[in-house]
Amino acid sequence: MVIHDGDLDDVQVQDELKDLRSRIEEVGTIAEVDFWGRRRFAYEIDHKTEGYYSVIELTAEGGAMDPVERALRIADSVVRHKLIRLPDDEAARRGLLAGPAPANDNQ
Q: pTM value?
């Protein structure tokens, strides 16, 4: 998840996302980008009350995202970011892992 500064306009945010996508595609594969748009924060973050939320699902080898995370950490336009590794069974269920998805035993 990436939260871009709410002071940016829509075009600037889309340009930032395009740059982020190209950085990710250098080290992995993007499965889905879910742009939530401008949202109000529950509390102030760095004296800001709004930001543009994006959730990006991707696959990459371990450690490959380090340069992308560093770029997110130093980018002035990024208010917050969070990289989360899905458990293998959840990633397989979403079709992000190679190989068959695990059988659903809850039937």
A: 0.82
Closest CA to 13 of 60, 71, 75: 75
Residue 34 lies in a domain: yes
* ∠ CA 82-59-102, rounded to 5°: 110
Considering Cα of 27, then 30, then 36, then 41, what sign does the dihedral take? negative
CA distance 20 to 72: 8
If one counts the domains in the chain, the total is 1
CB atoms under 10 Å from CB of 95, counted, come to 12
Q: Residue 101: what pLDDT?
A: 47
Location of structure tokens 């371990």? 62
